[in-house]
Amino acid sequence: MSFLWNLLIAVLSGVFAGMGMGGGTFLIPLLTLLMNVPQNVAQCINLLVFVPMAVITIIIYAKQKLIDFKNWWIISIPACGVSTLGVLLAIQLPSNVLKIIFGTFIALIGIAQIISLIVNYVKNKNKTKQNKNKN
Hints:
The chain is mainly alpha-helical and 135 residues long. Helix content is 85%, strand content 0%. It is built from 5 helices and no strands. Helix 2 (23-34) packs antiparallel against helix 3 (39-63).
């Protein structure tokens, strides 16, 4: 049964990652809630899963000429450094603290998405009103 749960979790996180939502957003909670994996282990698994997916994504985007190879280092090098520091910090923190930090992070992302949806809705509604007034 454990294999089926692992397979389901892998498929769900892969689908969400492929949709651009970030597989870790679902992988970490699914591992911790359904499989009782400690938070720091779940985050480590997420990082390990991320590496091959990132390589494949880079290959696909490079083939479509969607990567600016002249300026890749502006984001990549700081991101690698900060990620390394984050991993070193996460190793030191208790699992309960990581759960609180991750939960807060996910909640803030959700709030930001809701605000973004509301702002875009209001903008589109105002544009529609303006277009109707012009006609």
